[in-house]
Amino acid sequence: MCETMNKSRTVCKIISNELLTDQIFEMILECPEIVNEAKPGQFVNLYCRHLGRLLPRPISVCELNKDKGHLHLIYAIMGNGTKEFSTYNAGETIDVMGPLGNGYNTDTVSDIHLIVGGGVGTPPMVELCKQLKGRKIIVVGFRDNPYLVNRLKEYGEVYVTTDDGSAGFKGNVVEFLEKKSLKGSIYACGPTPMLIGVQAYADKYNLDASLSLEERMGCGFGACVGCVTKIASNNDAGFIYKKVCKDGPVFNAKEVLFSCN
Ligand SMILES: Cc1cc2nc3c(=O)[nH]c(=O)nc-3n(C[C@H](O)[C@H](O)[C@H](O)COP(=O)(O)OP(=O)(O)OC[C@H]3O[C@@H](n4cnc5c(N)ncnc54)[C@H](O)[C@@H]3O)c2cc1C
Ligand code: FES
């Protein structure tokens, strides 16, 4: 069971924490309160035990099992924080805050939902696909070594791209969208260069698109201003700053001003 520490930080039991593929782990947590509230595209803050790692690590909601109250998270080992998480065992606990941020709108009416994930931007697409109604075309890109593909196949047609061509289409997801002329309402999550490409694709073909930004974060809940991004505005400057952790991480593609724009 979860034991509430304060408004939204909870101590959660680790149900399992297993290697899925090279450097990629799935952690399942028992946290019914978070699971009941969470939406696809939102994230949780995971806190390290190591006292030198004060900042939480944001990890997206991958899948929600409301019957069991289980939250599924998939994370890649990137540095010391995620490496520490990979050493945790079933039966232990971890401090979690969430759900945080604003997720995807799952009420969108569209003939085709075009779901685009890149690398660690792929996990949030599982719960999104589960909740979206209608036809789903799912395009997921990896450097190599794809994962989650079979789980995504339960919800729609899945296409895989890899940078090295070791699986699926050789190239990136945006090249694949162009090659197949895929059209629909786009939901994307992945590294910034991919999101810039998706934004340009949506603009070129006048498609609705929601982008989940992978900004580096400090607090993860709106207090430190460490995650601001430029959002288009009618003011003199042409933009305002918004916090990715609180106002996002999901934004309408039309309003995001990437720093290279
Ligand atoms: C809203 C949100 C949701 C996320 N969801 C997931 C998820 O579901 N699964 C997952 O594996 N990762 C996810 N991430 C990224 C994850 O938070 C970072 O990989 C993690 O915090 C790194 O911590 P660390 O201590 O292991 O590495 P650090 O030592 O902090 O960093 C190691 C390397 O990772 C890079 N890095 C750290 N944070 C980010 C980031 N936000 N974006 C891009 N590069 C980063 C650093 O620049 C550095 O090169 C998400 C990030 C955000 C902002
Ligand atoms: S991470 Fe602190 S305000 Fe967004």
Number of domain units: 2
Radius of gyration: 18 Å
Bound molecules: flavin-adenine dinucleotide, FE2/S2 (inorganic) cluster
- Unreliable segments of 5+ consecutive residues: 1-7
Give the class from helix and strand content and strand pairing.
alpha/beta
Biggest sheet statistics: 8 strands, antiparallel
Number of helical elements: 6
Q: Which CATH architecture of the largest domain is right?
A: 3-Layer(aba) Sandwich
The overall pLDDT average reads: 94
Structure explained in plain terms:
This protein has two domains: 3-100, Translation factors (Elongation Factor Tu (Ef-tu), domain 3, Beta Barrel); 112-257, Nucleotide-binding domain of ferredoxin-NADP reductase (FNR) module (Rossmann fold, 3-Layer(aba) Sandwich), CATH 3.40.50.80. The chain is built from six helices and 18 strands. The longest helix has 13 residues, at 192-204. The N and C termini lie far apart (47 Å). The protein is α/β, with parallel strands linked by helices and 261 residues long. The structure holds flavin-adenine dinucleotide and FE2/S2 (inorganic) cluster (FES). FE2/S2 (inorganic) cluster (FES) binds at residues 217-220, 222-227, 243, 245. Residues 43, 57-60, 74-76, 78-82, 120, 123, 214-217, 249 line the site of flavin-adenine dinucleotide (FAD).
